[in-house]
Amino acid sequence: ALLREQGDRVITVDQRDADVVADLSTPEGRTAAVAGVQELTVVVHGLVPCAGIVGATGVNSAKIVSVNFFGAIALVRGLQRQLAAAGSSSVVLLASNSITGMPGWRASTADLCLAEDEEAARADAADADPLTVYPGTKAALAWWARREGVTEAWIGQGIRLNSVAPGSIDSPMTDQLLADPTVGPLVAAYPTAIGRMGRPSEIAALIGFLLSDASSLMVGAVVYADGGTDAGAKSTKGTRRAKRAKSTRARCTCPRRRRSAPAFASGGLSAGHYVAAWPSLPKCSSSPAASRT
Q: Percentage helix, strand, coil, to 5, in the chain?
């Protein structure tokens, strides 16, 4: 709605009631989705692959892998020519703050997603708890955007890749989690600095910014929009690490070791350190590709 209000044309992709009807959980469905968009436009200025499956009790973990990661990446790769034709375009992937906030998620699944080996990733996830597989797929999306975003194939063609990491959002997906007897209590206790869930309109506004030319300096970024959950979980831990590191340097007598000792260990994506908090796994069911008219 936000993009249409701004005068943009929006092409939707979904399993039903969309401009292009396709199932992103299968290679055939992804091919049909790409072909359907290509039939409707030769230029794509913005792409938001936001189809996703929640990591709730009883959900097929292998299907989470296929939809959340491989469905999204297939659309981005498949529409690369149309994105490049725009001269300047933007892709916004939907990650999650669980990628740095949830302990014990399925890192092996993320690695196999990044290797773009769907069969192996599905096999790895098949017997795993869907709650741990979900953030693995979302971490893979964020890492993929960072890895590929700075390459000639993408930014060299004027295509910016970024991702958004929402927290708990008041949405049907969160309602599904709240109804889950296992996950629900964790979601209900989800901490935020602002004392409430996020609103879908707040995530839409952020995505709209990342799609716009106003964000032209942002390439490979992971933007957290979680009401302060990620920052709150890390702030005291970072302070404690800094104090420990300072104390260690004071006792160290080797000049080389003093110079190289870090102030604190990173809690970011590149270092792979994670702190404890629970995700809400917000996503919408459609994958819009926006083309200006």
A: 50, 10, 40
Q: Is 5 exposed, middle or buried (0-12, 13-18, 19+ CB in 10 A)?
A: exposed
- How many C-beta atoms lie closer than 10 Å to residue 68's C-beta? 33
Tokens 């913005």 appear where?
46
Catalytic residue among 134, 190, 224, 274: 134
- The answer to whether 134 is a known catalytic residue is yes
Retrieve residue 277's tokens.
Answer: 């908090």
- Ranges of H-type helices in the chain: 2-5, 27-40, 61-65, 72-78, 80-85, 98-101, 107-114, 118-125, 130-149, 172-178, 184-188, 200-211, 229-251, 255-260
How far is C-alpha 284 from the geometric centre of its chain's CA atoms?
12
Provide the whole-model pTM: 0.80
Give 107-126 pLDDT, tens digit per residue.
999 999 999 999 999 999 99
C-alpha torsion sign, points 15, 199, 7, 293: negative
CA gap 114, 16 in Å, rounded: 29
Q: Which helix (H) or strand (E) holds 222?
A: strand 222-225
